Amino acid sequence: MHYDVVIIGAGIAGLHTAIRLPKSMKVLVVSKDYPWECNTFYAQGGVAVANSPEDIPLHIADTQKAGCYHGNKEAIEILCNEGPKWIQALIDNGFEFDKDSKGNFNYTKEAAHSSRRILHANGDATGRALHVFLMNQLNTHLLYNTQVVDLSFTGSRVNGVCLYHKGEIEWVSANSVVLASGGVGSLYSIHTNARTISADLHGIALEAGLELKDMEMMQFHPTVYIQGKGVRKQLLSEALRGEGAKVIDENNERFLFKFHPDGELAPRSVVSQSIFEHCHKQKTKAYLDVSKWSKADFAKRFPSIYFAMQEAGVDVPKEPIPISPAFHYAMGGIATDLDGRVLGTKNLYAAGEVAHTGVHGANRLASNSLLEGLVFSARVAASIASKEATSIGFASFNRPVNLKQDGDKDAKERLRKLMWNYAGIIRTTKGLEEALNQVEDMLKCRTGKLLRLRLLASREILSQALSRHESLGAHQLAAHPSICEGKL
Ligand SMILES: Cc1cc2nc3c(=O)[nH]c(=O)nc-3n(C[C@H](O)[C@H](O)[C@H](O)COP(=O)(O)OP(=O)(O)OC[C@H]3O[C@@H](n4cnc5c(N)ncnc54)[C@H](O)[C@@H]3O)c2cc1C
């Protein structure tokens, strides 16, 4: 089959690209699992957007500051300037953000934002509401339960996408290909991400010799309920702290103020690192105290979290919720220009969490990623629409693809533990080197392609982390290596 555009991923970035492309184009959207199994669907807190024209420069400044001034200023300006237009387009098309009793938008506040500029929908189910809304607007062919396992290039042009569907391999060709495959969550043994998010396209990009940037910048969310089975854990939205939830230890001490004057509202990386350090040093546990809400108010404002905690047997809001940081978001990704074109290619684009536009710097400002997905996917669609299509001849794609090998499952679990222990919240050079050696050894073994893609992406994270010798934002080297000794 030949398409004008193949879009890999059905989260906010993929769906919004598809919706913004001209109706005349033949477009295919591919999703690895059911379409809702993506990080967009699980997003809770909301979407950050300037609440007035005067707020735009403040949003820019907050984004730069949270990112430790490591971000690309031009990309940040695009994000904050163009964000209101795309949020307004959603509203004009019928999307409903939560409003207060007077009918005004019920903006909330999250950590490191200097104003209330987070719009949310259905309480703490913003992502689900957005995903359903965008899916309803989609007017193109969507192939689900289909995994992209390879791309084919002729020079700097991508000309084929290899699909794995119901045990069969099939190649399709396209004039343009958009990567919207999300982040890297499943590389870690404790994370908040959808099960589909395993860095496949990062690995494929590395195989093709494409550049990935800021891969050492991995964000760990501070407040995650990590008990229960499985690697995916229940996130406790930043909006909880924004609206007054407190982080305490076993002695009821609000210890975060010892680390940063803003306490619970310090940038995400600071809060995660502080919880990690305090609990290790003081041999204590951390909790989220949500007792400021009544049961009815909590259930109304945070229905998903309320339900999840009831299921887990935590009697919120009366009982504090046991928390730990967990892997959450990749600031780094496949390097693109400001129109989302992958550097070094002519017709390959990337948008959303898979892409590195530079907007997040060394630490993403809370709720900026849904906005990034909207803004940069629109730029990708505009860029594709403005170019004269160069039709690529259909090459013969008969490369054998050995996807799985005996032993891959165990190796995948080992890799996850390596990444969590050594490329986690606080790192040491010794730990990163140890992990890199082990990953190199695993790459020398016979593995299936899917594990190999995870290994390549992990190697890139570890190598880029080793290349950064100072702590910056989410990349935190242990001031006192003893903090990590228990894990080495
Ligand atoms: C629990 C949670 C809460 C969050 N809350 C917020 C929030 O409140 N505000 C905010 O701004 N951000 C939030 N985030 C981050 C935000 O949700 C994500 O960064 C954003 O949704 C990413 O969108 P995306 O379109 O790039 O990727 P995703 O929504 O993750 O979609 C990726 C898509 O790619 C597909 N895919 C992956 N690999 C392949 C493959 N090999 N072949 C085919 N398809 C593939 C997947 O199936 C999926 O359809 C949250 C994240 C999580 C996990």
Structure overview:
The structure is a single chain. The chain is α/β, with parallel strands linked by helices and 488 residues long. The chain has three domains: 2-146 and 331-386, 3-Layer(bba) Sandwich (FAD/NAD(P)-binding domain); 221-328, Flavocytochrome C3, Chain A, domain 1, CATH 3.90.700.10; 408-485, Methane Monooxygenase Hydroxylase, Chain G, domain 1. Helix content is 36%, strand content 18%. The protein has 15 helices and 17 strands. The protein has helices at residues 12-20, 39-42, 55-66, 73-92, 126-137, 200-207, 238-242, 268-282, 295-301, 303-312, 368-386, 408-422, 429-444, 449-467, 482-485, and strands at residues 2-8, 27-30, 47-48, 118-119, 141-143, 146-154, 157-165, 168-179, 212-213, 218-225, 234-235, 246-249, 286-289, 321-330, 333-335, 348-350, 355-356. Strand 10 and strand 11 form a beta hairpin. It is globular and about 65 Å long.
Summary of the model, kept short:
With 488 residues, the chain is α/β, with parallel strands linked by helices. The chain is built from 15 helices and 17 strands.
The CATH topology of the largest domain:
FAD/NAD(P)-binding domain
Provide mean pLDDT, rounded.
Answer: 94
- Text of the CATH class of the largest domain: Alpha Beta
Helix content: 25-40%
Q: Indicate the structural class.
A: alpha/beta
Roughly what fraction of the amino acids lie in strands? 15-25%
Task: Tell me, briefly, the overall form.
Answer: globular
What small molecules does the structure contain?
flavin-adenine dinucleotide
Secondary structure: number of strands: 17
The number of domains is 3
* Radius of gyration, CA atoms, in whole angstroms: 22 Å
Question: Unreliable stretches, pLDDT < 50, 5 or more residues?
Answer: 481-488
CATH superfamily of the largest domain: FAD/NAD(P)-binding domain
Give the terminus-to-terminus CA distance: 50 Å
Number of helices: 15
The description of the largest β-sheet is:
7 strands, mixed
Do you know the CATH architecture of the largest domain? 3-Layer(bba) Sandwich
